[in-house]
Design brief:
The protein is an alpha+beta fold. It contains six helices and 13 strands. It is globular.
Length: 287
Protein backbone atom coordinates (compact mmCIF):
# COMPACT_ATOMS: atom_id res chain seq x y z
CA UNK A 1 0.00 0.00 0.00
CA UNK A 2 1.21 3.52 -0.83
CA UNK A 3 -0.76 6.38 0.76
CA UNK A 4 -3.83 4.19 0.98
CA UNK A 5 -3.47 3.04 -2.63
CA UNK A 6 -2.56 -0.46 -3.73
CA UNK A 7 0.52 -0.88 -5.95
CA UNK A 8 0.22 -3.84 -8.29
CA UNK A 9 3.02 -5.49 -10.30
CA UNK A 10 1.87 -6.73 -13.72
CA UNK A 11 3.99 -9.05 -15.85
CA UNK A 12 4.37 -7.30 -19.22
CA UNK A 13 6.73 -9.69 -20.99
CA UNK A 14 8.87 -12.46 -19.57
CA UNK A 15 10.57 -11.07 -16.47
CA UNK A 16 9.63 -7.49 -17.27
CA UNK A 17 7.07 -6.05 -14.86
CA UNK A 18 5.19 -2.78 -14.69
CA UNK A 19 3.87 -1.15 -11.53
CA UNK A 20 0.37 0.31 -11.55
CA UNK A 21 -1.45 2.13 -8.77
CA UNK A 22 -4.88 0.70 -8.10
CA UNK A 23 -7.53 3.13 -6.92
CA UNK A 24 -11.26 3.68 -7.16
CA UNK A 25 -14.17 1.47 -6.29
CA UNK A 26 -13.72 -1.28 -8.87
CA UNK A 27 -12.58 -4.65 -7.49
CA UNK A 28 -8.90 -5.45 -7.95
CA UNK A 29 -9.69 -8.34 -10.32
CA UNK A 30 -11.60 -6.01 -12.65
CA UNK A 31 -8.74 -3.53 -12.78
CA UNK A 32 -6.25 -6.31 -13.57
CA UNK A 33 -8.60 -7.59 -16.28
CA UNK A 34 -8.88 -4.09 -17.76
CA UNK A 35 -5.08 -3.76 -17.86
CA UNK A 36 -4.81 -7.14 -19.61
CA UNK A 37 -7.41 -6.09 -22.19
CA UNK A 38 -5.51 -2.85 -22.83
CA UNK A 39 -2.31 -4.80 -23.37
CA UNK A 40 -4.09 -7.14 -25.79
CA UNK A 41 -5.51 -4.20 -27.78
CA UNK A 42 -2.05 -2.64 -28.00
CA UNK A 43 -0.63 -5.93 -29.30
CA UNK A 44 -3.40 -6.31 -31.87
CA UNK A 45 -2.74 -2.75 -33.03
CA UNK A 46 1.00 -3.45 -33.34
CA UNK A 47 0.21 -6.52 -35.45
CA UNK A 48 -1.99 -4.40 -37.72
CA UNK A 49 0.92 -1.99 -38.18
CA UNK A 50 3.12 -4.94 -39.14
CA UNK A 51 0.55 -6.30 -41.57
CA UNK A 52 -0.17 -3.01 -43.32
CA UNK A 53 3.45 -1.87 -43.39
CA UNK A 54 4.79 -5.21 -44.64
CA UNK A 55 2.13 -5.44 -47.34
CA UNK A 56 2.89 -1.89 -48.50
CA UNK A 57 6.52 -2.87 -49.05
CA UNK A 58 5.60 -5.97 -51.03
CA UNK A 59 3.16 -3.92 -53.13
CA UNK A 60 6.04 -2.18 -54.92
CA UNK A 61 6.03 -4.86 -57.63
CA UNK A 62 2.36 -5.94 -57.51
CA UNK A 63 -0.52 -5.03 -55.15
CA UNK A 64 -0.27 -7.10 -51.95
CA UNK A 65 -3.56 -6.83 -50.08
CA UNK A 66 -4.53 -7.25 -46.42
CA UNK A 67 -7.81 -8.46 -44.95
CA UNK A 68 -9.29 -10.14 -41.91
CA UNK A 69 -10.63 -13.69 -42.10
CA UNK A 70 -12.19 -14.47 -38.75
CA UNK A 71 -9.53 -13.93 -36.04
CA UNK A 72 -6.66 -13.97 -38.55
CA UNK A 73 -4.99 -11.42 -40.79
CA UNK A 74 -4.04 -12.51 -44.28
CA UNK A 75 -1.64 -10.80 -46.70
CA UNK A 76 -1.71 -11.87 -50.34
CA UNK A 77 -1.59 -10.75 -53.95
CA UNK A 78 -4.51 -8.97 -55.52
CA UNK A 79 -6.30 -11.15 -58.09
CA UNK A 80 -4.03 -12.16 -60.99
CA UNK A 81 -4.91 -13.43 -64.45
CA UNK A 82 -2.58 -16.41 -64.09
CA UNK A 83 -2.98 -18.30 -60.77
CA UNK A 84 0.59 -19.59 -61.13
CA UNK A 85 1.88 -16.05 -60.58
CA UNK A 86 0.55 -15.80 -57.02
CA UNK A 87 3.17 -15.32 -54.32
CA UNK A 88 2.77 -17.27 -51.09
CA UNK A 89 0.10 -15.91 -48.78
CA UNK A 90 0.93 -14.99 -45.18
CA UNK A 91 -1.58 -15.79 -42.43
CA UNK A 92 -1.00 -13.99 -39.10
CA UNK A 93 -2.20 -15.56 -35.86
CA UNK A 94 -2.17 -14.21 -32.30
CA UNK A 95 -3.79 -16.12 -29.44
CA UNK A 96 -5.56 -18.45 -31.86
CA UNK A 97 -5.29 -22.25 -31.55
CA UNK A 98 -3.12 -23.82 -34.27
CA UNK A 99 -5.95 -26.20 -35.22
CA UNK A 100 -8.25 -23.24 -35.89
CA UNK A 101 -5.55 -21.37 -37.81
CA UNK A 102 -4.91 -24.40 -40.00
CA UNK A 103 -8.62 -24.93 -40.71
CA UNK A 104 -9.22 -21.28 -41.66
CA UNK A 105 -6.11 -20.97 -43.83
CA UNK A 106 -6.79 -24.18 -45.75
CA UNK A 107 -10.42 -23.24 -46.27
CA UNK A 108 -9.71 -19.77 -47.66
CA UNK A 109 -6.27 -20.00 -49.30
CA UNK A 110 -5.75 -19.69 -53.04
CA UNK A 111 -2.84 -22.11 -52.92
CA UNK A 112 0.53 -21.82 -51.17
CA UNK A 113 0.84 -20.07 -47.81
CA UNK A 114 2.83 -19.44 -44.64
CA UNK A 115 1.51 -19.21 -41.09
CA UNK A 116 3.07 -16.56 -38.84
CA UNK A 117 2.27 -17.32 -35.20
CA UNK A 118 2.93 -14.76 -32.46
CA UNK A 119 4.25 -16.04 -29.12
CA UNK A 120 4.67 -13.87 -26.02
CA UNK A 121 8.26 -12.79 -25.41
CA UNK A 122 9.68 -14.77 -22.52
CA UNK A 123 7.12 -17.55 -23.01
CA UNK A 124 8.26 -20.96 -24.18
CA UNK A 125 7.45 -21.55 -27.84
CA UNK A 126 7.70 -25.34 -27.62
CA UNK A 127 3.92 -25.94 -27.31
CA UNK A 128 3.33 -23.84 -30.45
CA UNK A 129 6.09 -25.60 -32.36
CA UNK A 130 4.79 -29.02 -31.35
CA UNK A 131 1.18 -28.18 -32.21
CA UNK A 132 2.03 -27.01 -35.73
CA UNK A 133 4.38 -29.96 -36.26
CA UNK A 134 1.55 -32.32 -35.34
CA UNK A 135 -0.55 -30.61 -38.03
CA UNK A 136 2.11 -31.24 -40.65
CA UNK A 137 3.91 -27.87 -40.60
CA UNK A 138 7.64 -27.17 -40.76
CA UNK A 139 9.28 -24.25 -38.94
CA UNK A 140 11.03 -21.93 -41.40
CA UNK A 141 12.19 -19.01 -39.27
CA UNK A 142 12.00 -17.33 -35.88
CA UNK A 143 12.06 -13.53 -35.63
CA UNK A 144 11.65 -10.97 -32.90
CA UNK A 145 8.72 -8.54 -33.02
CA UNK A 146 9.85 -5.10 -31.77
CA UNK A 147 8.34 -1.70 -30.99
CA UNK A 148 9.87 1.70 -30.21
CA UNK A 149 7.44 4.24 -28.71
CA UNK A 150 9.49 7.21 -29.98
CA UNK A 151 9.45 9.01 -26.63
CA UNK A 152 13.23 8.65 -26.32
CA UNK A 153 15.39 8.54 -29.43
CA UNK A 154 19.13 8.40 -28.71
CA UNK A 155 21.61 10.71 -30.38
CA UNK A 156 23.77 8.73 -32.77
CA UNK A 157 26.52 10.57 -34.65
CA UNK A 158 27.30 9.03 -38.02
CA UNK A 159 30.67 8.65 -39.74
CA UNK A 160 28.90 9.02 -43.10
CA UNK A 161 26.13 11.20 -44.52
CA UNK A 162 22.53 10.08 -43.83
CA UNK A 163 20.12 11.29 -46.51
CA UNK A 164 16.47 10.83 -47.29
CA UNK A 165 15.98 9.84 -50.94
CA UNK A 166 14.27 12.87 -52.53
CA UNK A 167 15.60 12.99 -56.10
CA UNK A 168 15.03 10.67 -59.08
CA UNK A 169 18.81 10.46 -59.51
CA UNK A 170 19.40 9.09 -56.00
CA UNK A 171 16.37 6.81 -56.38
CA UNK A 172 17.85 5.41 -59.61
CA UNK A 173 21.22 4.87 -57.91
CA UNK A 174 19.53 2.98 -55.07
CA UNK A 175 17.60 0.89 -57.59
CA UNK A 176 20.86 -0.23 -59.18
CA UNK A 177 22.30 -1.16 -55.79
CA UNK A 178 19.24 -3.18 -54.74
CA UNK A 179 18.44 -4.42 -58.27
CA UNK A 180 14.87 -3.23 -57.95
CA UNK A 181 12.71 -0.65 -59.66
CA UNK A 182 13.55 2.94 -58.67
CA UNK A 183 11.25 4.57 -56.15
CA UNK A 184 8.33 6.27 -57.89
CA UNK A 185 8.52 10.08 -58.08
CA UNK A 186 5.30 10.33 -56.04
CA UNK A 187 7.10 8.69 -53.09
CA UNK A 188 9.90 11.28 -53.12
CA UNK A 189 7.65 14.09 -51.90
CA UNK A 190 7.64 15.43 -48.34
CA UNK A 191 4.18 14.01 -47.57
CA UNK A 192 4.81 10.58 -49.12
CA UNK A 193 3.54 7.61 -47.04
CA UNK A 194 6.86 5.81 -47.56
CA UNK A 195 10.28 7.34 -46.82
CA UNK A 196 13.59 5.85 -47.91
CA UNK A 197 16.91 6.72 -46.24
CA UNK A 198 20.44 5.93 -47.37
CA UNK A 199 23.91 6.17 -45.86
CA UNK A 200 26.40 7.77 -48.28
CA UNK A 201 30.16 7.52 -48.10
CA UNK A 202 31.18 9.89 -50.84
CA UNK A 203 28.98 8.91 -53.77
CA UNK A 204 28.53 5.30 -52.65
CA UNK A 205 25.40 3.97 -50.93
CA UNK A 206 26.62 1.85 -48.01
CA UNK A 207 23.39 1.46 -46.02
CA UNK A 208 19.64 1.92 -46.22
CA UNK A 209 16.35 1.73 -44.31
CA UNK A 210 12.71 2.49 -45.11
CA UNK A 211 9.76 3.76 -43.05
CA UNK A 212 6.14 3.18 -44.06
CA UNK A 213 3.06 4.90 -42.60
CA UNK A 214 0.68 2.26 -41.22
CA UNK A 215 -2.56 3.24 -39.45
CA UNK A 216 -0.85 5.94 -37.37
CA UNK A 217 2.42 4.31 -36.28
CA UNK A 218 5.18 3.46 -38.74
CA UNK A 219 6.69 0.24 -40.03
CA UNK A 220 10.49 -0.03 -40.33
CA UNK A 221 11.71 -2.22 -43.18
CA UNK A 222 14.74 -3.31 -45.21
CA UNK A 223 17.44 -2.19 -42.80
CA UNK A 224 20.84 -2.98 -44.31
CA UNK A 225 24.49 -1.90 -44.01
CA UNK A 226 27.22 -3.21 -46.30
CA UNK A 227 29.34 -5.80 -44.45
CA UNK A 228 32.51 -3.76 -45.04
CA UNK A 229 30.95 -0.77 -43.25
CA UNK A 230 29.41 -2.45 -40.21
CA UNK A 231 30.38 -1.80 -36.57
CA UNK A 232 30.82 1.91 -37.29
CA UNK A 233 27.45 3.16 -36.01
CA UNK A 234 25.92 3.59 -39.47
CA UNK A 235 22.92 1.37 -38.74
CA UNK A 236 22.13 3.23 -35.53
CA UNK A 237 22.45 6.58 -37.29
CA UNK A 238 20.07 5.48 -40.06
CA UNK A 239 17.47 4.29 -37.55
CA UNK A 240 17.71 7.40 -35.36
CA UNK A 241 17.28 9.72 -38.34
CA UNK A 242 14.30 7.69 -39.52
CA UNK A 243 12.68 7.67 -36.06
CA UNK A 244 13.12 11.41 -35.57
CA UNK A 245 11.37 12.03 -38.88
CA UNK A 246 8.64 9.53 -37.94
CA UNK A 247 8.00 11.36 -34.67
CA UNK A 248 7.97 14.74 -36.41
CA UNK A 249 5.24 13.41 -38.71
CA UNK A 250 3.11 12.43 -35.71
CA UNK A 251 3.93 8.75 -35.34
CA UNK A 252 3.72 7.42 -31.78
CA UNK A 253 5.43 4.09 -32.41
CA UNK A 254 7.78 2.31 -34.83
CA UNK A 255 7.33 -1.45 -35.34
CA UNK A 256 9.59 -4.03 -37.00
CA UNK A 257 10.62 -7.68 -37.10
CA UNK A 258 14.23 -8.79 -36.82
CA UNK A 259 16.46 -11.83 -36.78
CA UNK A 260 18.53 -12.65 -33.70
CA UNK A 261 21.50 -10.75 -35.15
CA UNK A 262 19.43 -7.68 -36.02
CA UNK A 263 17.83 -7.67 -32.58
CA UNK A 264 21.14 -6.62 -31.04
CA UNK A 265 21.17 -3.44 -33.13
CA UNK A 266 17.55 -2.43 -32.55
CA UNK A 267 17.81 -2.73 -28.78
CA UNK A 268 20.61 -0.14 -28.82
CA UNK A 269 18.26 2.50 -30.23
CA UNK A 270 15.32 1.81 -27.91
CA UNK A 271 13.30 -0.94 -29.58
CA UNK A 272 11.73 -3.43 -27.14
CA UNK A 273 10.96 -7.01 -28.01
CA UNK A 274 7.25 -7.59 -27.44
CA UNK A 275 6.63 -10.92 -29.19
CA UNK A 276 8.36 -13.71 -31.09
CA UNK A 277 7.20 -14.51 -34.62
CA UNK A 278 7.32 -18.18 -35.68
CA UNK A 279 6.99 -18.74 -39.44
CA UNK A 280 5.62 -22.13 -40.50
CA UNK A 281 4.96 -23.70 -43.88
CA UNK A 282 2.66 -26.69 -44.38
CA UNK A 283 4.28 -29.81 -45.74
CA UNK A 284 2.87 -30.95 -49.04
CA UNK A 285 0.17 -33.50 -48.59
CA UNK A 286 0.48 -36.68 -50.56
CA UNK A 287 -2.24 -37.04 -53.20
Amino acid sequence: MVGGLRVLELVVSGNLTRSIVVAGSRPLEQQVSAAAKTKRREMEFAIEVFVRGHSAGKSRTFPYETSRVGPLWVMRDAPRNNPRDYRKEEWIAHDVAPEEVDAIARRHTRGRFFVCAMVGDGETDEPTRSAYKALGYRLLATEGFFAQRLTRIPKSPSPVSIERVRTPELAAQLGKVTRTRPIADSLLRNNAPCRQYVALEGDDIVGRVRSVDAVGPTWCADMYVDPSHRRRGIGQALLCRMMRDDRARGSKCSVLTASHTGALLYARVGYERIRTLLVFTPKRRKP
